[in-house]
Design brief:
- This protein is an alpha+beta fold.
- The chain has three domains: 2-172, no CATH class; 181-230, no CATH class; 237-305.
- Helices cover 54% and strands 11% of the residues.
- It has ten helices and six strands.
- The protein has helices spanning 2-12, 21-67, 76-96, 100-117, 124-134, 137-140, 145-167, 198-208, 216-230, 292-298; strands at residues 181-182, 245-247, 256-264, 273-281, 287-291, 301-305.
- A six-stranded antiparallel sheet has the order 1-6-2-3-4-5.
- A hairpin with an 8-residue loop joins strand 3 and strand 4 (273-281).
- Helix 4 (100-117) packs antiparallel against helix 5 (124-134).
Length: 309
Amino acid sequence: MQSRYQQLQHFLGLEPENISQAEKLVSTIGGFVSIFLIAYISFQFTGALGAALIVPSMGAAAVLLFAVPHGRLSQPWPLIGGNLISAVIGVSCYKFIPDVFVAAGLAVGLAIGAMHIFRCVHPPGGATALAAVIGGPAINAMGYQFVISPILLNVLVLLLVAVVFNSVFPWRRYPVSLMRFTDVPVSDAHAPASVVDKQVIEKALSDMDLIVDVTTDDLQRLFALTLEHVGQQKLSTDQVHLGHYYTNGRHGGDWSVRWIIDESVHPDLEKDMVIYRVVEGHGLRSANSCTRSEFAHWAAREVFPNKEQ
């Protein structure tokens, strides 16, 4: 019985979800704020019918930007390029192909192909292309103006909301390039043995011949953390160094990054002190001191700045 249940889970793609409650709540609120603004703008430019047909496309995009903000398909270029290119293709298919069924199929098919070519695969782009064909009089009458308003306008609103909203939560900055710290050094020359080289990861992805909605950087972090957990590594006092950054590895509002700004080295563990400043997450900009042992007990692992602080 258990085996059949597991087979059913595998068939349905039902995977364990290791996401904190805080992350789920933030995603929910972000989706509400973004779609509220987009729905209002869509109504102003196209009327109620037009808004009803456009919002589903942007709603799908909002799921990516707020539920999977670090995903490859969620980044700014896929969002912008995927929707605009698909909109142009959709309008063109409506204008030049009289059979609506053929036009609808071609719009989505060509949009997928174009997104592959321009490296901006974004699933909601297919819905944008389709809306341009079967959107009804309010949409069809716009012609290529549909690309500018409401699509470009909606995309820019969604992008702005995603950047501003996610900036409030340090552990989920959007786009992913704005993340200040990573579990992998920027320079591979200083990478620990547990870090898998990016070129090796890219080669493996090429061998699979699949699009995976995870950036290469996140895959590299995933492999490094996985190997760390397999080895059940814990930080020792010898691994706590002046000028280095460490995280407690927690989730949501409890996540924090500390920077060792000074130290007082002493052979007596009770007097071997470090002074740190919180540079990200809980307690931001505060400073304090503790023994090196206490700091090592707090820290889950070392992290590395993506750019100069």
